[in-house]
């Protein structure tokens, strides 16, 4: 993820991450926008991306890797092993521009309004009304989440139960990113 | 490891019509007395016995299929002597037909769902149930010994029926299956006293919280192979240790990630005769009370016979060197569940001179692949999986790794390679360097990606592969491909049996080239490509000679699919719906069609329409 450098402090050092120390460092430096929703083109300094179409939605079943294998990769690097733990369901929450990641327990919320209110309080933003057709129109931020299959979705698209069991992490997108995401959906 | 089997397809099994046209040389009206001096012919039953004694030596499926076409008698006797039956599509015939044709089956290999179901392209509960097969066989084949299932839905009840019905049962192999749990496994473990092989491979096994390891009988077992690495449930290690000790024939053991490194260490010390080992979790428990760390390397050193190593889930890379004592003997190494960096990897691979099969994650980078190329001159099979399987992930391997492999591993036969960047030049090089290639599957993860150096389509690269690799039977393509690539496939891919296409081609002509040019094509799976009705119609002369055709997110109209179904009565044409049930959809979401001797299946779910 691209983090802002505030007062020349590299706030990546204070990022809360799951994973063994020392891993993924190289990846991080080159990794500019991979975690961004793949509904958007990668940045243009990546020369091999220049011929791809402007917006890509995440495609079902592509690349063709069996979920058994994908789950194994998750197990390997997730020391907390959220998948098997039924009592709490922590997910990381990040907001574009915010220096720190937060963790919340999804199980403490019963529905979307509660979750969104908590997020608003946590990150001090206001979110617009969600409606099925137009997403979060008129809002400066758009809450998105990554589900079990690695797809980035708009928070609110699926019923709450389905969301809370499949949500792996949350990302609050803002500004132009948000609008692009909304219009692509 | 799970591998897609390269099977030899039988000729179309419309045997009944063919038989009726032939006059058998031995007519049933002949005298049943002993040989008379004037007649040169033998009585039927003698001939049958002779045939039986001869035909029982035929092992190959294709040989047997050929023999069964000679005449009615040969057909009958071959049916009596075939002990191993392969069914590539469980819906191609009914279980009843199987038991009527073959009377003394000892071993069944059955395949169910099409491969694209693995990638969520098919809703769950589509079918491929084991239940009708096991219940029919329970009555017909009391001496059944082996069942090998792939992509089949198996319930605990099915497993229980199996365990109770076949007293001599020896081998159960479940690959990419689902529907059962540890309770079903427990019944098999307990009731199948002659069990030699229990292999659960890449299957979904629910945790019923049953201590199935303790369910094996108390006395010495016949176990030769036990694989449960896909079982996501803790096991009773004491019971496992005891089981291993009382299994003197055990050669292959694949543990799941709930077995710690210390426990693996203990098992190895007690089972030095192992030839194939799948380690459990490969990390050291730092909180353990022992003051001294166990000497893991010593345990591996004691296993002089290990030639196949896999597992390494939850790897702590600093413990990897413990396997060094066995590396020089390894013919097969599977690191594909371990995120290993090049620096950790290189010292290991430099000792693996005998390696023939190597699976890994792309975390070893092009650098790691170069090390493989430098050392593993005997390599036959390479599979590189993506650590980060997303379309826009970084992709640490590229054409450099593949090129190095092609230069170093000239005996290569099978490649599966996930990457983000590739060039035609590397594929052309591989096509020249590796003439033994039979399987070539390249997945450039970003869709429609061209050669990243020249910017051109990947046509020439894949063209070279089909042209120069004269033994190629299986091909999976990706990247930016025009109709030209398919023209090459049709022109040169004369031995291709399995073809996978995704996001490729420009027009119907592409598919036409393949359907008209590849006479051995058996399995065709296509997704998200602009192929329509004209292309589908152009293959009608082929569909009875193929096992199946899958086309999803293409440009097929319902009308055309109906036409095909009408024109080909022995073809089952399934249209699988998508989420929106719009009757006016222009194109069919998924077409899955296959030949069948017994007509459309009766167990199709709501979302499947059989035309």
Automatic annotation (TrEMBL), chain A:
Residues 71-86 have a biased composition (Low complexity). The keyword Heme does not apply. Keywords: Auxin signaling pathway, Nucleus, Repressor, Transcription, Transcription regulation. Residues 22-87 are annotated as: Disordered. Residues 88-175 form the PB1 domain. InterPro entries: AUX/IAA_dom, AUX_IAA, PB1-like. One of its GO terms (cellular component) is nucleus. One of its GO terms (biological process) is auxin-activated signaling pathway. It is found in: Nucleus. Its main location: nucleus. Belongs to the Aux/IAA family. Homodimers and heterodimers. This is Auxin-responsive protein. The lineage of its organism: Eukaryota, Viridiplantae, Streptophyta, Embryophyta, Tracheophyta.
Automatic annotation (TrEMBL), chain B:
It holds the Pfam family F-box_5. It comes from the Eukaryota. Residues 1-38 are annotated as: Disordered. It is found in: Nucleus. Residues 44-83 form the COI1 F-box domain. CDD domains: F-box_AtTIR1-like (cd22159). Keywords: Auxin signaling pathway, Nucleus, Ubl conjugation pathway. Pathway: Protein modification; protein ubiquitination. Residues 29-38 have a biased composition (Polar residues). Residues 103-149 form the Transport inhibitor response domain. InterPro entries: COI1_F-box, F-box-like_dom_sf, Leu-rich_rpt_Cys-con_subtyp, LRR_dom_sf, Transp_inhibit. The keyword Metal-binding does not apply. The keyword Nucleus applies. Residues 14-24 have a biased composition (Low complexity). GO terms for cellular component: nucleus; SCF ubiquitin ligase complex. Gene3D superfamilies: 1.20.1280.50, Ribonuclease Inhibitor. Its main location: nucleus. One of its GO terms (biological process) is auxin-activated signaling pathway. PANTHER family: F-BOX/TPR REPEAT PROTEIN POF3 (PTHR16134), TRANSPORT INHIBITOR RESPONSE 1-LIKE PROTEIN (PTHR16134:SF36). This is Transport inhibitor response 1-like protein.
